[in-house]
Amino acid sequence: MNIIVCVKQIPDPAAPGALNSDSNTLKRDGKLVIDDSDMYGVEMALQLVDAAGGGEVSLVSMAPNGETSGMRTALAMGAAKGVLVSDPALQGSDALTTAKILAAAVQRLGGADLIVAATESSDGYTGTVPEQMAEVLGLPSVTFTKKIVINGSTLQASRQTEAGYDEVTCALPAVISVTAGVVEPRYPSFKGIMAAKSKPVEQVTASDLGVTPVGWDGAGQKITSVTQAEARQAGEIIEDDGEAFNKIVGFLENLKVI
Amino acid sequence: MTLNNIWVFAQATNGAVNTATLELITKARSLASNVSVFVSGDGAAIAAAVGDFGANKVYGADCGAHLPGVAMAAAMKSVIDGGDSPDLIMFPQSYEGRDAMARLSVKLNKTVITNNVDVEDSGNGVTVTTPIFGGNTLVATTFTGSGPFLAAFRPKSFAPEASGGAAAAVTAVVVPDLGAAGSAQVTAVHVEETSGPKLDEANVVVSGGRGLGEADKYSMIEELAKLLKAAPGASRAIVDAGWVPYSYQVGQTGKVVKPSVYIAAGISGATQHMVGMKGSKNIIAINKDKEAPIFGIADLGIVGDVHKVLPKLIEALKTRG
């Protein structure tokens, strides 16, 4: 069982986000970290490979400036190797181009039985890349999965729906996206962190992968304005002196909720 | 450009069209004279309902046991290839909507723009508005090149209003052979029942977060919700921790709510959460950290321990009967 996990390396989510003033793209020039949402996919992949009794977990990522620090976290957790697509030409790429790039990186690794991604990234939130990648690769997909079991060449998954969940079966190879919280991501061990430093990460460009056009040229959109939304004003803030619940009761009475 | 032909990706359960669909149809008819609806299943079942909101045509595609996204995208592509090519396709920001849009974008080699809250036809192009950074910043993006343009919209971006139109004309679409991509099949459907009002339709919502400390304490949220005839909600943190099902989640990746009153108990106000609730008319926040971002948007903020404030509030409401 060989599994490829898509790993996004994003700016520290605890820091306030900002846009580059010239291009209106998200600032990604500081240190990047692995998107927390991808930790679940990495853990899920490691567990599925363990359960299958053999194989390995590989990574694909697209990031500026040859950034691998987020990938190293996943390698420290137990992934074996990775492909990083890093290329200044990729700046401004839309979700469709990103999906084409990641699909090509998957093929560079020789494909896999299963390709895992998060449902959406924590910085861009487009939320279509896993399904677009499946279509580019001509594979079936099960998005928003919360539980996955593999029996031979078939995948059985529980898939989140608006009303509850569906049980879905799907032939491998396939693409899945996993929701946050499906598994408890392991902490990398010291040994894992040391080993990750020497695990192979091949760095390639968009043209190495034969994907054109990319970046702004490939994006069927242009940002026309960026404005500040009308800020919501804070109201009355009080310290609880043991009687603050009465304030809430009064507030609800005023609104005729009670 | 002028928009002439807009499609709306519709979702319906047992012939009942969901609110998000009606919101999109209402907006679509204000932009174009031809509005078609694309639905998984029997188009006839919703023809009157979508016609009443202004749709002229409904395409129904029987997806069988396929996951709808892949089958619907193939059906839409076949209609486009057949000559009815829309200028814009509006999708709801839902699981099925996102899947179908993603598959179709590859088939058409067109970009997608998701998480939008508005769309306009400026004459020079079709422009959508997307809030980022928790809704503090609005980005306007114009589609370039030729259509069909693909855009997904958050629930409650538009107010649904009936137009009193006649039933839409129904066309059945055959789902083409999906090849390997069609192998994902639904074998069972589970509905997680929640009692009381629905989270995204409730007049009052009471949500709990990590400040509750432990899973058992969520019962305070449920009790308060019951007393206020409110829907219980949750932050992503406690959904990820497994305290409550995903269907309770309010936020960017959960439900968008705009109730009259939103009570956030033990929720600090991560961007992810605020996006889903900052449209509420009145916000009450209870949190022990006075620096919590939630207080920046609260109409009434109580800096205090939820374990002390909530029991007293519940008791006071019970006493009132």
Structure in words:
- The complex is a heterodimer of chains A (258) and B (321).
- Chain A has one domain: HUPs (Rossmann fold, 3-Layer(aba) Sandwich).
- Helix content of chain A is 29%, strand content 28%.
- Chain A has helices at residues 36-52, 69-77, 95-108, 129-137, 190-196, 206-209, 215-218, 244-254, and strands at residues 3-6, 9-11, 32-34, 57-62, 81-85, 114-118, 141-151, 154-160, 164-171, 174-178, 201-204, 221-228, 236-239.
- In chain A, strand 7 and strand 8 (154-160) form a beta hairpin.
- The radius of gyration of chain B is 21 Å and the shape is elongated.
- The longest helix of chain B is centred in the C-terminal third of the chain and has 15 residues, at 306-320.
- Chain B has helices at residues 19-31, 47-52, 68-81, 95-108, 218-227, 236-240, 271-277, 306-320, and strands at 5-10, 12-13, 16-17, 34-40, 57-61, 88-92, 112-116, 118-121, 126-132, 137-143, 149-153, 169-173, 185-191, 204-208, 231-234, 261-265, 282-287, 300-303.
- Chain B has 321 residues and is an alpha/beta fold.
- Chain B has two domains: 5-183, Rossmann fold; 204-320, 3-Layer(aba) Sandwich (Rossmann fold), CATH 3.40.50.1220.
- Chains A and B meet through helix 3, helix 4, strand 7, strand 9 and strand 12 of A and helix 3, helix 4, strand 7, strand 9 and strand 10 of B.
